[in-house]
Design goal:
This protein has about 250 residues and is an alpha+beta fold. The chain is built from six helices and nine strands. Strand 6 and strand 7 form a beta hairpin. It is elongated.
């Protein structure tokens, strides 16, 4: 319907309904004759907004899916790397165990060989030589305030506290010596009983022990300058200590 026909129809309606207000007539006429394109233009922003929202939702879903896929791929890669590392670690551990087992086997073979050689050599030793070999498994030592006792048995120390310690150590016989010869190699009786006649007698006994080492001795306190500590040792201990005398004298400077 064109504009003129719309106008004629409106005039007829106004007349039939007694509408005489010109301003109202003009407003209604204007609305009725407005081009439809203008109405579509008013709707365009809303349509554009709807499409933008839909596009954003699709993009977000796509990105979320991509992120999940990427994260899953990274997680899988990390898991594979961990599995490969654990496999390599297990392989290295197995290799180390194999190497250690080989070393132990080689040491056992060497030990058996050395034992056979030692047995053949020992079979040629006489009793005196066997006794010297047995004695070599044990050592004895006297120290005064951590100082080695000289061969003449005489030593000087500072005033105050004085420790005299006899140390006894032994080497495992590793099944080389028989029990009989092993016992013959030790000093007779209690090794500490080989020290006698200790003066002055105001001492206290001290101890020190380890896996293959043990020590016993005397502690003297508050010794003044000019004091002398004396003691005697047995001939047997003298021999083991490689001393030239059985009399020990400790002089306080």
């Amino acid at each position: 319907m064109n504009k003129e026909k719309v106008k004629e129809s409106l005039q007829y309606i106004f007349k039939e309904n007694s509408v005489v207000d010109n301003e109202t007539k003009s407003r209604i006429f204007s609305k009725m004759t407005t081009s439809p394109k203008k109405k579509r233009i008013v709707l365009m922003p809303a349509v554009v907004m709807i499409f933008l929202l839909l596009g954003t939702a699709v993009w977000s879903a796509t990105m979320f899916s991509n992120n999940n896929n990427t994260q899953n791929a990274v997680t899988t890669e990390v898991q594979q790397e961990n599995a490969e590392y654990q496999m390599q670690e297990s392989t290295d551990e197995t290799s180390k165990i194999a190497e250690l087992e080989f070393e132990v086997s080689r040491f056992e073979e060497e030990r058996e060989y050395y034992h056979s050689v030692i047995s053949r050599m020992m079979s040629k030793l006489n009793n005196e030589e066997m006794l010297e070999l047995a004695k070599s498994h044990f050592s004895y030592d006297i120290k005064v305030n951590q100082q080695q006792l000289p061969n003449d048995g005489r030593i000087e120390v500072d005033p105050g506290e004085v420790d005299v310690l006899l140390t006894f150590s032994m080497t495992p016989h590793y099944n080389v010596l028989s029990e009989e010869w092993y016992e013959k190699g030790m000093i007779s009786g209690d090794y500490f009983s080989h020290i006698t006649h200790v003066e002055p007698n105001n001492w206290e006994e001290i101890y020190a022990d380890g896996s293959n080492v043990t020590a016993r001795g005397y502690k003297f306190k508050n010794l003044k300058s000019g004091s002398i500590i004396s003691m005697s040792i047995s001939e047997e201990l003298k021999e083991r200590l490689s001393l030239n005398t059985t009399n020990i004298e400790i002089v306080v400077k």
